[in-house]
Design brief:
289 residues, mainly alpha, globular
Length: 289
């Protein structure tokens, strides 16, 4: 597929199969409902969506908004891997490319090509600037140097399979097949699909609907309902104005639950070198990294 006249993107059959399979299994969730399954769903949404993707992959790894001990960094990265959005190196490289090329033909997921392209379809194609090992070293050299990140990036699918087998086995030992299937359907499939879609809303909805607080020379918007769904990621115009800021909700009414986590980690001594909101002059400048 050729987007905006740039080099064609290669279709990835495996991505299509994976997305369809998880959506299909998620559709079985109403038929396998259990209270432990629902509890597993809610807990894993928070662990993978908030702690893994928003806190770990995004604010920590992609932008270095704060620092935590290496062991805790690896734990957050593992949580992010369990969201099934790719390994940390690919995720970070893609996000950094997005910031560099936001809403241009080279943007990995701009809604200038349509809502559904930005929301889902882009996942089915390999970006021509994110193909080779050298490409990833260019956009994520810090992660590529670390053997643990390389391991997690290579085996994130295997880790998800092992997690599914683990909770299936636990459910089977406790209450047999019924609970085992419920935990997998709710705690793996439905949870994964839900976190996928709320994450993808940041790519699609927050570049289409909302309000601007800063002139960033792209279409990023602050969107309150996306922010509530994504633990604070919906304040996307604020974020594009100053990507390194650990705090995205800047006004009193802009609720940023992930920033609350960062403040708590700083209070107990785990998070250090937290980058806060900068001056309006800096926030109004277009970022390229």
């Amino acid at each position: 597929m050729c987007v905006g006249g740039m080099q064609p993107r290669q279709f990835v059959v495996g991505s299509l199969i994976g997305i369809l399979l998880l959506h299909f299994i998620a559709l079985t969730a109403p038929f396998t409902f259990s209270w432990p399954g629902l509890t597993m769903f809610l807990v894993m949404v928070y662990i993978t969506g908030c702690l893994g993707i928003t806190l770990g992959f995004h604010r920590l790894l992609s932008h270095g908004s704060f620092k935590v001990p290496k062991v805790f960094t690896y734990l957050l990265t593992l949580f992010g891997c369990l969201a099934m959005q790719g390994g940390p190196i690919r995720w970070v490289a893609t996000h950094r490319l997005h910031h560099k090329t936001a809403d241009t033909p080279e943007d990995p997921h701009s809604p200038t090509q349509g809502f559904w392209w930005a929301h889902l379809v882009w996942n089915l194609y390999r970006h021509p600037k994110l193909v080779t090992e050298e490409d990833f070293k260019h956009f994520a050299p810090d992660l590529c140097r670390d053997p643990v990140f390389r391991f997690l990036d290579r085996y994130f699918v295997f880790l998800n399979i092992m997690f599914a087998l683990l909770i299936f086995g636990i459910g089977y030992l406790i209450q047999g097949w019924k609970l085992a299937l419920s935990l997998v359907a709710w705690g793996c499939a439905l949870r994964t699909v839900y976190v996928w879609h709320i994450t993808w809303l940041v790519n699609s909805a927050t570049h289409l609907w909302g309000y601007h607080s800063y002139d960033t020379n792209d279409n990023s918007q602050n969107n309150w309902w996306v922010a509530l769904l994504t633990f604070g990621e919906g304040w996307h115009n604020n974020h594009h104005a100053n990507p390194q800021s650990a705090r995205m909700g800047l006004a009193w009414q802009e609720i940023d639950m992930t920033y609350w986590v960062i403040r708590f980690l700083r209070k107990i001594g785990l998070a250090k070198r937290v980058i806060e909101r900068r001056s309006a002059t800096i926030l109004a400048q277009k970022t390229t990294d």
